[in-house]
Amino acid sequence: MTVETKLPYEKEYIVQFSEGRKEPEWMKSLRVQALEQAETLEMPKPDKTKIGKWNFTRFAHDYKEGNSISMTNLPVEIQDFFDKDNLPENLLIQRNQSLAFSSMNKDLKDKGVIFTDIFTAMQEHEELVKRYYMKDAVSVDEHRLTALHAALMNGGIFVYVPKNVQIEVPLQVVFWNEAPDNAFFNHVLVVADENSSLTYVENYISHNEEEESVANIITEVIAHNNAKISFGAVDNFAAGTTTYINRRGIAYRDATIDWALGQMNDGNTVSENITNLIGDNSLCHAKTVTVGRGNQTQNITAKTVHWGKNAEGYILQHGVMKDSATNIFNGIGKIENGASGSNAEQTSRVLMLSEKARGDANPILLIEEDDVMAGHAASVGRVDPLQLYYLMSRGITKTEAERLVIHGFLAPVVSQLPIASVKEQLTQVIERKVY
After folding, report:
1. pTM for the full model?
2. Is 426 a domain residue?
3. Of 243, 262, 324, 421, which residue is least crowded by CB atoms under 10 Å?
4. Is residue 432 very low, low, confident or very high in pLDDT (cuts 50, 70, 90)?
5. Cβ atoms < 10 Å from Cβ of 395
């Protein structure tokens, strides 16, 4: 099939957008070059999912000022992300692709922590952003969607934690879009310097049930030597949004990156979560949970690539499918030559709630080194009737028994989200999608 080459915007728009945001010259140049590359690059080819006819280019791309809000007038759906009696100290809210609310603990500011929107970061911390932006984790020219992202990026967050700084209180971000057809081209860049640590949690929410739009999100997470990053996310895009999410991690010597991802989108979704374990003794836990419904199609990949010696990568993916939804779980553990002593383990499980629902779990191990450990487990099936029988024999109704089984099935990922209010919000989303 020939890939459509008509792009949504011309060079002049890209230049005007960049200049209007007062971006540095290198960023404007990167955008223009990326737009040119997008004309010729191919689309990504996720395993067992045809995306040639999915909408990745039809959307509105308007930036509007004047989106400020206060914590006292937040709509109900945004309030659910927070503990009402204990509002977060470190919080950013992006509303319709512009910064609407920002707060950060003064002590963190004094220690040199940067927690701000991507455009402010480019103006105030240009060299830091330039050092990491689409350099080590994600490349502009990987395929057409990464190039389109680089050309059209219209929002995002930059986090930098200096050496030897440990952040005890989570950093929380809400990306909230009220405009039905406006696109998310979000870039999230999280960097933990040597011997530092942080917890970062983000939520995406949109309201376009019928209007078509696009989310093209790239996240780059960099953990330097002996750094630790805990990254949590709940993605909740409405049915009208076609979503491409690329979350990429780089872990250096003795570094740890933990992912806890809730893929709760209602539209067609391609999600990649890839962690490169560059350094010796680096570690990654990649946990993903998803619920599919309606005619939704999802392709979700988790991958650890082991480069350093004694690098450990653990993948856990659990999904629930209902109605006519389809989900592909790809779990990939790749151990490169020289990564002796490494361990790659993965488990992917899909629970189907209806006859027309479809699930597929693809465990893949690619081993280029002898002195390693590796293993995988995969299962696709329906609710265990013995579990239901046991619960119902204790006086629980069939509906409540199914509910308990489903929540127990998803709990290994849901329980890992580090903020109680976000964990509760994800639980509520699961309830709405399943029942």
Report:
1. 0.94
2. no
3. 324
4. confident
5. 7
